Amino acid sequence: MNTEVRRTLPATAIPDGCLPWSTEQTRRWTRVLPPGWTSVQRLGLRNLKLALLTGVLAAVGLVSAGLPPYLAAAAGLHLVWLPLRPEIVRVSAPALALTVLAVHPAPVLPVIAGALLLSATALAVSGLRLRARTRQRDAALAAAAGVTAPLPDAGGPVRRGRFLSGLGTFLILVGVPLAATAGLWGSSDGRRVVVGGGCFVAGLGVTALLSGVLGGRRAAALGAAPAPVLRVLTRATRHGDARVFAADDVAGLRPLFTVGVVPSDHKGDYDADDVADGTVDLVADVADIAGPAETNPLYDDGPGPLREAVLYGAPYDGAEVVLVSAAAEPGGPLVTERSSGPVRPVPESTVRRRLEQAKRAAARRAAEDEQHLGLVAAARLMTTVPVRRWRAGPVDRLAGLLVVVSGASMYWAISDGVSGLWQGIVAALTGLYAAFRIPVKLRWRITADRTGLWLNGLRGTTHVPWDDLRSARREALELKLRWSHGGAWTVSAPRWAWLQRRRGVPHPYDALAAEVTAMLGDRALRPTGDSEEKERGRPLWPLAVPFVLAWLTALLAAVVGLPDW
After folding, report:
1. CA distance 509 to 487
2. CA 337 distance to own-chain centroid
3. If both were cysteines, with which of 112, 211, 320, 450 could 218 make a disulfide (CB 3.0 to 4.6 Å apart)?
4. Which of 464, 442, 440 has its CA nearest to residue 454?
5. CA distance 462 to 266
6. What is the mean pLDDT of the chain?
7. More confident position, 145 or 106
């Protein structure tokens, strides 16, 4: 169990009559949460990008199938609104169904059936979330037992919503003219794609604008009158958000919700987190797996300690709250934070799933750490040399071959007309990126001398002094070297853990990382000489030029066709 001492809140910071939100009372709140699959428990940049990508792909696919661009954009936007803004779906889903019935776009029956199914599903899912909000709020108000208190920063300016409102206005001003000028495109496919893209961008603008308005109104309503108060425990995630627990959950094992927060005296606009309120996995909450996050080296960037706090406002999915918590450091001042994004409840199913994932991840990481320590111990027996070098090997050549095969398959899709316009553009850009990565995979080199490491790359060679180097590890498929000020160098290659365990052969990246780690910890093992410039490798961008030219030539041939000789 997590035995770290939590930061306590002085009695003067607790409003009179404020009750603790105990585990017994929070069960009523967690029981009324909607199913975990109906909502995004943590918005985050990754989930935001996933929602946008899903909506874009759906819109592009429907336009390619012949659906009118504005209807295709509306259908794609529903896949964005459903997890992020269910309030919109209550109006948009019936409007989409009625529009399809009125327009009768060809092919009539499949489109009508699909629109009705999408509308019904979206309404049902959004209805679950919106009804659950009322029950969550009632449960929180019952736990507060009518005790209220003015916000500690009441009367201050409400900046919540300004960023999103400005972003939404900008996107609308971009999307509407884009759709209106679609007639400038020569081909009908081009016009359809531009109209759909403009409608989609304008729809995202409406989403951001409405999110800003809702956030601002809820934040203003919270400070307009004394708010319900509850005593809770909170912990800062490594991204700066707040994760809230029951007042007696001293082990921090059952997070109730996560919310993006900023200090209440923050002078700038602070609701950018509503776009991507980065939060982290619940792995760090399982403190009994790997020890307290503050001392365990596996969690050197992990969450902060548990702190007592007073929660102002009734929490529910999408709510605005204020937290007054104990200082993060002993002897520090109290911390007053306003929500910079909506409250995101954590369903029970998500907690169970994440705990199981945490246990498996911790076991896997423990095995990898044990292997790494064994390889480091073996590396300490190596002899000291003037200069030590590592370079790309068979696994890297295999990685390069896989990239080439992937490029060939993309070329086949483009040349045979399997992909549409936007898929072709994505494939072309991906191929260009791969053309620049192939030389790195085939010709990377690391040179160690008495001054540090020399790492070659596309633009040139990077020198990392020994005192700046922080770590060298193989992480999943990547060899990653980190140094001070956030510097990092990576290269990736395939890995078959089961085959390596069976044959007792470590991955080349594991062996390399162990040797660098051994030299990092023992100065006597570091090289004694100075490397020459030719030993450090040259810039790799000249080697990328033939691959880029070959890819561009292949694309040109696929688009215009090869000439008849």
Report:
1. 19
2. 23
3. 320
4. 464
5. 38
6. 82
7. 145
